[in-house]
Amino acid sequence: MSSQRSRPRGPNRSTEAGGHGEELHLWEDVKKLLPSTLNTFNDSSSNVLAIRDQDKTMAEKKDKGKSQAITTEDYSKLDNLLRRGVKINEAAGQNLLAIIEQAKILKAVAQAKEQELEQSSSRSATQRIKDTVASTSVYDFDGAGDSPVPSPNPTSRGRINGPSSKGDRDSVPPNRDRTPAAKAGSVEPQSGTAAGIIRSKVTFAKEDEVAFKPKPINNEHTDWILGFVQEVRGEGKARRYKVLDAEPDEHGVKKDFRTSASSMIPIPKQGTVLPPLETGKTVLAMYPDSTTFYKAEVQGMAPDGKVNLKFEGDESLMQAVIRRYVVEYRG
């Protein structure tokens, strides 16, 4: 985890300087470090010239031989200059590292505020779009798919090895009670932004493998789970999907859910060549030995092409997940 994300951002200064108080404060910290850094560079340059002159003097004495021998004082002076150069360069390096650290924090804060402003400006437009979609008549589906109730045991779902395999329900997903608070300088993607509305225009086909989020009942939390598109009806805003839960319930029955594109994330088809993920990226990933997707942070790519992850609430354990089951993060 990068240090700027774990460092406290201090009191809210958003009311200062037209809403840029926090960034201004951080920039002032950077500016304070610049003079001392410049001075160390100047001192280092002067010291290098002094070393050059002393070395030249000693070389000239050596050429003259016995008539002007190099003294102990000459060696002592050169040694002192070299030691001084080491100290000056160490101080310059420390100043540069401090400036880089402050610049990283400043960048993280600026990016966080930009996203907050974007979300704020798009909230009213997003709500109007949601209201329009909600008021649009939807197509009815027959059968169990009419129920928005999520599959049983959403936090202990078994592993899916294929469309028809039954999972191992002994899998232990991340502990939600140990989920840390949001870290300073980090802003997670939100499903209610304009970007989420754009995603809702993505279309899916029958038999597509997807991560989808069942509609909650009584404001209860639901997770993103693995499923397969069974049926597509309607066009445009009225297009709806029937998705089959990949995991059977305790009676061995796989439930259907009615959902829309905005509540689905495509899973790349097997064999698709996918790019590596950058370290530190926030993603949704299918927890090992389960069919449930949880928030995780990329730690790097494994040699076999899997993604090394640390799941939120389970940061002490590194997990490797197949690349195609690591998808964009949505809350």
From TrEMBL:
InterPro entries hit by this protein: SGF29 (IPR037802), SGF29_tudor-like_dom (IPR010750), Tudor_SGF29_rpt1 (IPR047288)
Region Disordered: what ranges?
1-23, 138-194
Q: Name one Pfam family in it.
A: SGF29_Tudor
For bias type Basic residues, the affected ranges are 1-10
Q: Name one GO cellular component term.
A: SAGA complex
Q: Where is the composition biased (Polar residues)?
A: 154-164
Q: Where is the composition biased (Basic and acidic residues)?
A: 166-180
Residues in domain SGF29 C-terminal? 200-331
Protein name in the entry: SGF29 C-terminal domain-containing protein
Q: Source species, please?
A: Diatrype stigma
